[in-house]
Amino acid sequence: MPDASLAAPQTVPATPRRQRAPLPRSLYGGASVLGMLLFWWALAGGRVVAADLLPSPPQVWAALVEITRDGYRGTTLAGNILSTLGRLAGGFGLAVVAGVPLGLWMGRNRLAGAAIDWIIQLLRPLPPLSYMILLILWLGTGDASKTALLFLTAFPIVVAASAAGISGVRRQRIQAAEALGASRTQVFRHVVLPSAAPMIFTGLQIALAAAFSTVVSAELMAASDGLGWMVISASHFLRNDVIILCILVLGLLGVSLAWGLRALDRGIVHWRGRD
């Protein structure tokens, strides 16, 4: 009979550790915003920066209540927001309408790409405000010059992204569609365009961010309304509370626009990442 002391020890199965459910991402985002507000409050309250240079959050809130109730120099906050968004929609919309078809044509036609690409590559790195003065001289200080500036800002980005999206389509996909009897139009509609759409929408997001920053800069230079105009006007009267308020509103608008375009991207290009 075998010795019991030599028997293999019985292994007690380990109790599985319960994994904690991950916290929602929105909770982390809310905590970071709260931390930023507390840091701002501490800077203002501790007089790290002079009180007239850095208003506290309650002072900025008071400025919001005042402008909402009484307006700002004959304008309303909502009206200035709409003016800025209207200029952005005009310039960016024209860039999309003109830039996407041109980029698609350049990607599909080698001669068109060779003839136009150098112009696009020349325009892309140019700082948009470098030709703002010329646009004001040619088109005046109204919305026409600002719309043209925003168009020139977003247009080369949209064209380059659209052309790159078409050029990056795998040749095997086109050959497979052609082998199944698809016409050129069907190949473009059902193979080329869906494959290029993710790159096109990425370019649209970059172009929108560039145009949004440019519209504020344009309003700083020559405007009678808009959020950029509010910033430069408030600086003349040392209304730093209004300046910070406008900066916060601009930040919220920028985040909202980017979120909206990403949501449109997810809704239309639902096959992204499945290649």
Question: What key attributes describe this structure?
Answer:
MetI-like fold; mainly alpha; 275 residues
Polypeptide structure, described:
- By secondary structure, this protein is an all-alpha fold.
- It has one domain (57-268): MetI-like (MetI-like fold).
- It has helices at residues 25-45, 57-70, 77-108, 110-123, 132-139, 143-167, 171-179, 184-221, 227-236, 240-268.
- The model has no long low-confidence stretch (mean pLDDT 85).
Describe the structure concisely.
It is built from 10 helices and no strands. It is mainly α and 275 residues long.
Layout of helices and strands, plus pairs?
Blueprint: H1 25-45, H2 57-70, H3 77-108, H4 110-123, H5 132-139, H6 143-167, H7 171-179, H8 184-221, H9 227-236, H10 240-268
Helix content: over 70%
CATH architecture: Orthogonal Bundle
Mind telling me the CATH class? Mainly Alpha
Could you tell me the radius of gyration in angstroms? 27 Å
Count of individual domains: 1
Order of helices and strands: HHHHHHHHHH
CATH superfamily: MetI-like
Taken from the alpha-carbon principal axes, the silhouette is flat
- Any idea of the CATH topology? MetI-like fold
